[in-house]
Amino acid sequence: MAKLIAFVLLLLISPAAYAATTHTVGGLRGWNTGVKYDDWASEQTFATGDSLLFIYDISHTVDEVTEADYQSCSSANPINSYPSSPTTVPLNATGTRYFICPRSNHCSQGMKLTVTVSADGSSPPPSGGASPSPPSGSPETPGTPPSTPSSPPPPAGGGAASILGGRNSLMVGFSLVLAAVVGIMG
């Protein structure tokens, strides 16, 4: 019984160990030309402990670069270079990270990604003060309030944490299951 309690306490102390998310960059399209990475990233929540998974063919690579090199699409001084797929990049610290494809003119054609990592999985504030656009398929007339959907949209990202409504719900659900197990055994 003491071992079970110690195990439960260990799991509750380190929630990132079971709540981390692997984000497949670009979703089903992967790391490739023709993908709107700003749109993809805006649908994700990146937290410390998560990781990025870049999947690409031999015509691409991944370079992590500074913000200035990201803006100019320069791969002259990469922070990290990843020449072969699949590439997993751990997100171990908060802050903004920048990735480009250094091949040919891929970066200038939009093959670049900015990721802002938060400490707790909460969404960072939008940059540039842009307000979110209305959902597609809901035309609005100027001067009328936006329509409210009858049910909330499904959580982005897939995965167990998204299905249960986020990391906090996963922790609560896991805690309730463990409490039931301890109650049955004790």
Structure, described:
InterPro entries: Cupredoxin, Phytocyanin-like, Phytocyanin_dom. Residues 1-19 form the signal peptide. Residues 21-119 form the Phytocyanin domain. It is a single chain. The protein is an alpha/beta fold. The protein has a domain at 16-121 and 165-186: Cupredoxins -  blue copper proteins (Immunoglobulin-like, Sandwich), CATH 2.60.40.420. Helices cover 28% and strands 18% of the residues. The protein contains six helices and eight strands. The protein has helices at residues 2-13, 16-19, 37-42, 67-72, 159-163, 167-185, and strands at 22-24, 46-47, 51-54, 62-65, 80-82, 87-90, 95-100, 112-118. The strands form two sheets. A five-stranded mixed beta sheet has the order 2-8-7-4-5. The chain has a three-stranded mixed beta sheet with strand order 1-3-6, with no helix packed on it. Helix 1 packs antiparallel against helix 6 (167-185). It is globular. The model is unreliable at 6-13 and 125-178 (pLDDT under 50).
Summarize this structure as a short list of keywords or feature phrases.
alpha/beta, globular, 18% strand, 3-stranded mixed sheet, 6 helices, 8 strands, 5-stranded mixed sheet, Immunoglobulin-like
